[in-house]
Amino acid sequence: MAVVLVVAVAFSLLPPSSGADACSSHSFSGNGGGRLYASCAALPRLGATLHYNYTAVTNTVAVAFRAPQAKSEDGWVAWGINPSGRASMVGTQAVVAFRRANGTLAVYPTVLDSYAPSMAPAAPGDLAFPVSDVAAEHVDGKEMVVYATVALPAGKGSKFTHVWQQGSAVVKGVPAAHPTTGDNVLSTATIDFSE
Q1: CATH for 39-173+183-192, among 2.60.40.1210, 3.30.420.40, 3.40.640.10, 3.40.50.150?
Q2: Strand runs (DSSP E) across 1-104, as ranges?
Q3: Are 138 and 85 in contact (CB under 8 A)?
Q4: Which of 91, 98, 189, 193 could form an S-S bond across to 54 if both were Cys, CB 3.0 to 4.6 Å?
Q5: Three-state SS sequence of 133-184
Q6: How far apart are alpha carbons 178 and 2 in whole angstroms?
Q7: Which helix or strand (DSSP H or E) is residue 8 part of?
Q8: Eight-class DSSP state of 88
Q9: In angstroms, rounded to a whole number, what is the distance separating the alpha carbons of residues 158 and 138?
């Protein structure tokens, strides 16, 4: 009994699993083309991770944003950069992905221009910076992975505010509003892609 108690206490004193654990457990296939990502950040909210390759010469970053579905396969996920540097969804240019009613995946860049954005696909002229190689995949019916290559805004270096999100419903082909409490309103951070 004393040995069991000592072992239980010893395990309780171990640090919680690190973000590296969350990152190292992911592999990419399908639309990810078996890509390998040199860097990964376990994001502090919504159980998401961001895998990325930064190319300093072109100031571009190839990302794989991975997030659990909020409640079902009917939900949506999004990841983006707010070039203003504000920790806010307003002003963010995001890539959103969801499963359409016919079972295919929709994935596209959008501009979050208010707290009630249209979530419609953005025209290339509406984007503050180019986004290419946009793709998505559904993993085991539990997670969505969004892929994109972002040409980071010129003259702003490699450090940006990024925002990520998940919602539980898509209505008539449009992602519905996400919850406005808890982690859903705290899912923003600063990231330096060169680190």
Answers
A1: 2.60.40.1210
A2: 39-42, 49-55, 60-68, 76-82, 92-99
A3: no
A4: 193
A5: EEEEEEECCCEEEEEEEEECCCCCCCEEEEEEEEECCEECCEECCCCCCHHH
A6: 49
A7: helix 2-13
A8: S
A9: 29
Residue showing tokens 């040409």: 151
pLDDT in the model for residue 135: 92
Domain residue extents for the chain: 39-173+183-192
What type of residue is 88? Answer: S
Contact 62, 166 (CB under 8 A): no
Locate 174 and state its tokens: 């449009």
Tell me, what's the pLDDT at 26? 64
Higher pLDDT, 6 or 20: 20
